[in-house]
Amino acid sequence: MVATAAAGPREIIEDGRSGLLVPAARSDDVADAVQRVLDDGQLRERLRTGASDRFRTHFGAERMAADLETAISELCAA
User: Fold this and answer.
1) pLDDT profile of the chain (78 residues), mean per 10
2) Is residue 6 a contact partner of residue 19, using CB atoms and an 8 Å limit?
3) What SS3 state is found at 31?
4) What is the CATH number of the domain that holds 63?
């Protein structure tokens, strides 16, 4: 995944581990990053694995359910 280093993507993507972040409004950098991913199979596989792991640990159903349970518990205790 290639994205600009804006607030939203920075919360989701770990640069170099689960994707590549490039400066916003620099289309040449975006194109270069996309080309790197297309050309480098090892990089592509590392980013794919990293993105899958990050999604599972930070955004998967089990994590979301645990976060919801914690929030409800905190509300009930207040």
Assistant:
1) 91 95 90 97 97 92 92 91
2) no
3) helix
4) 3.40.50.2000
Amino acid at 76: C
Give the E-state strand segments of 1-78 in sequence order: 2-4, 20-22
User: What is the rounded CA–CA span in Å between residue 55 and residue 78?
Assistant: 31
Q: How many CB atoms lie within 10 A of CB 39?
A: 9
Query: Amino acid letter at 77?
Result: A
Query: What predicted TM-score, i.e. pTM, was given to this entire model?
Result: 0.76
Provide the domain count of the chain: 1
**Domain limits for position 6:** 2-77
Q: Residue 23's closest CA among 37, 12, 9, 42?
A: 9
Question: What would the two tokens of residue 53 be?
Answer: 């792991």
Q: 4: which strand partners?
A: 22
